[in-house]
Amino acid sequence: MKTVGRSFSRKLRYAVIYILIVAAVGIIFLRTPTAYLPDEDQGILLAQVILPAGATLEQTTDVIRQVERYFNESEKEAVETVMTIAGIGFSGRAQNNAMAFIKLKDWQLRGRPELRVKAVAERASKAFGRIRTARIFAFPPPAVTELAMAKGFDFQLLDRGGLGHQALMDAQKQLLDIAAKDPRLTAVRPNSMEDVPNTAST
User: Fold this and answer.
1) CA 85 to CA 48: how far, in whole Å?
2) φ, ψ dihedrals at 73, nearest 5°
3) 137 with 47: CB under 8 angstroms?
4) Distances from the Cα of 3 to the Cαs of 10, 11, 19, 26, 86, in angstroms?
5) N or C, where is the chain less crowded by C-beta within 10 Å?
6) CB of 89 within 8 A of CB of 127?
7) Any residues with CB less than 8 A from the CB of 76 and at least 6 apart, and which?
8) Intervals of the chain under pLDDT 70
């Protein structure tokens, strides 16, 4: 009661204090991440490599070597080691699939914003966009291990009309093309392998 009574006699001082408190709350609100799981630099970067169906293991290996060379040469200030695997990807085993695991240097050596995992991933994605023989996606892992392979959201496309496999694949391609033109979406990629021609001998 004494504090409240004192505030009435010193209105200007307490008004300034109130304004400062509201301003501090507003700044904290604006700076707080709004995502369900905020971005987190875990010092790890993943890369997925997908070549056209029917590509050989040698072609896939050539592309994955380009990925490895990029990180070791163009991002050597941020990258410590790169491990690549050809013939298997996040969507399954195939000669046209590959993946890379990139370990970044200690956080103390990456103090500048351009050396953070998000910045490295963005630059890598732009550089890999110039490789026309494959689709390459670089992305950081999710904030919570085992929650998913990457941050963002998953979308499942269902053939509810019973139109068949080819119609579903055409719809997937159309959906990916639309998503690629949307500036709000980045690194949209299928989590499945393309159909591979299969010839049987008689």
Assistant:
1) 10
2) -105, -50
3) yes
4) 10, 12, 18, 25, 71
5) C
6) no
7) none
8) 33-39, 143-154, 186-187, 189, 191-202
Phi and psi torsions of 64, nearest 5°: -65, -30
Beta strands in 90-200 (DSSP E): 92-104, 135-139
- Please give the DSSP secondary-structure letter assigned to residue 195: P
Token output for 93: 């085993």
- And the tokens for 3? 């504090």
**Are the CB atoms for 102 and 134 separated by under 8 Å?**
no
Task: Name the strand (E) or helix (H) holding 49.
Answer: strand 44-50
Rounded CA-CA distance 156/197 in Å is 24
The amino acid present at 70, given as its one-letter code, is Y
Closest CA to 64 of 80, 43, 88, 93: 88
Q: What is the pLDDT of residue 184?
A: 75
